[in-house]
């Protein structure tokens, strides 16, 4: 089960969203957190995957460095305030692959594709010499499972650029 929420992470881990903004829990927004979160830490303690942490003013932030979101809703159900809205999509963030992907250096790797349950990481063998990985934006749900899988830190979860 989740832990106390007193755990701390590096600044990089906590502020890895778009433009360095923190990634907030599913079914929340920066606005709903600023408006309604009282910093009680109940959602952080409730997360069975231990991906929620206390961020600025004790408000919850997500880090995928050690785990993924299973969309279990435990965080939303633990919150007694009006921060979470389960009637909305969980979030719009998705995986983005950077130039650090070692395929771009001609070295074979499939660590991330094997970890994506919904098969949103598409391996394109036609790219020379060792292929390339692309994110299928119609499939990626932003769960973050691929982040820890990539030992080269080439994957971030953020608001993607739409094609
Ligand atoms: S939905 Fe579940 S796994 Fe995802 S952040 Fe909330 S408690 Fe954690
Ligand atoms: S695990 Fe990382 S380095 Fe390997 S293919 Fe995926 S993104 Fe590239
Ligand atoms: S964030 Fe989840 S769904 Fe998206 S590519 Fe990574 S593992 Fe697949």
From TrEMBL:
Top-level lineage group: Bacteria
Location of the 4Fe-4S ferredoxin-type domain: 27-57, 60-89, 131-160
Keyword field: 4Fe-4S, Iron, Iron-sulfur, Metal-binding, Repeat
Protein name: Ferredoxin-type protein NapF
Annotated source species: Parasedimentitalea denitrificans
């Amino acid at each position: 089960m989740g832990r106390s929420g007193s755990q701390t992470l590096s600044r990089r881990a906590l502020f890895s969203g778009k433009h360095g903004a923190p990634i907030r829990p599913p079914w929340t927004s920066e606005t709903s957190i600023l408006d309604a979160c009282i910093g009680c830490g109940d959602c952080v303690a409730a997360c069975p995957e231990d991906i929620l942490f206390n961020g600025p003013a004790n408000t919850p932030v997500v880090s995928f460095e050690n785990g993924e979101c299973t969309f279990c809703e435990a965080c939303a159900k633990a919150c007694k305030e009006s921060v979470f809205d389960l009637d909305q999509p969980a979030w719009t963030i998705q995986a983005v692959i950077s130039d650090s992907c070692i395929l771009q250096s001609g070295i074979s790797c499939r660590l991330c594709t094997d970890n994506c349950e919904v098969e949103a990481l598409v391996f394109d063998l036609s790219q020379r010499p060792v292929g390339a990985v692309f994110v299928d934006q119609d499939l990626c749900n932003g769960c973050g499972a691929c982040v820890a899988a990539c030992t080269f830190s080439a994957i971030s979860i953020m608001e993607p650029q739409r094609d």
